[in-house]
Amino acid sequence: MAGLKGALIGCGFFAINQMHAWKDVKGADIVVICDRDPERLKIVGDQFGIERRYTDAATMFGDGGFDFVDIATTVQSHRALVEMAAAHKTPAICQKPFAKTLNDAKSMVAVCAQAGVPLMVHENFRWQTPIQVVKAILQSGAIGEPFWGRFSFRSGYDVFSGQPYLAEGARFIIEDLGIHTLDIARFILGDVTSLTARTKRVNPKIKGEDVATILLDHENGATSIVDVSYASKPAVEPFPETLIELDGTKGTLRLSQGYRIEVNGPDGIAVSDASPQLLPWASRPWHNIQESVLAIQQHWTDRLADGGETTTSGADNLKTFALVEAAYESATSGRAVDIGAMLQ
Question: Where is the GFO/IDH/MocA-like oxidoreductase domain (predicted)?
Fold first, then answer.
């Protein structure tokens, strides 16, 4: 079968990782790029040898010649671009955060469903090697039925130097990072029924919150804590690792700094290394995320080829997006939020 041809819209900071990963994906390649900034368009086009370049997405869609589109722009343009893809019957990947509001996200899912085209959100953190290993261990029954968990990302890493716009929004850490951690909690322990959150802004130079603590009640009866911070000052910087603690009816699982996994079960203690692969184009400490970009893009390509649904489809991601909206609502009101009611 001939490889799928893709178009990428948005040639900014993170899109470079996506372009590198597309070069490694089996069965697909990017043949068209689009960005409103001619300079960025030239830089990425020259770096990756892409001849077809556009500064206008509507013109690009009109000319066609590609099988799917990878939308790597900021959130303000997501709905318009997804609707444009649906109008042209073009399967679409959309970068997170999926939309500006939950209602926008619901509309985007609906318009793609009506057009009969696949829609996937680029929610790559669950595709990280250590997260996949944790899921596999849990599914093996090694610690029994999980009843408690903690998903933690606490760092002092300067994310603003590469993405200065992050300091300007009224929302920051839940929308930018917590969305990943909440998705991991869903992926590991299942969907959520209610949520309570507290936030804080420690860094006076930014507008949004840089610390959040979120309590989740899961459908299976488990309780978990999601805690994220860019205001912490650990002795050894863990960025960009997500640390996990799980307690089950037969034992415990700990994913600790350095990708060390310790399982204490009926057969004793087992320690293993879940370090991600350092791809040729990747660099530490980003390699964990960079490897997951390749994994999710390969997943998309495989599902397009076999007609299956992606694990982070637009419809599935509504459940993660609702957690983000609920966290901000709870932090403002001080009350728990019913997730099911938000998704109706």
Answer: 132-254
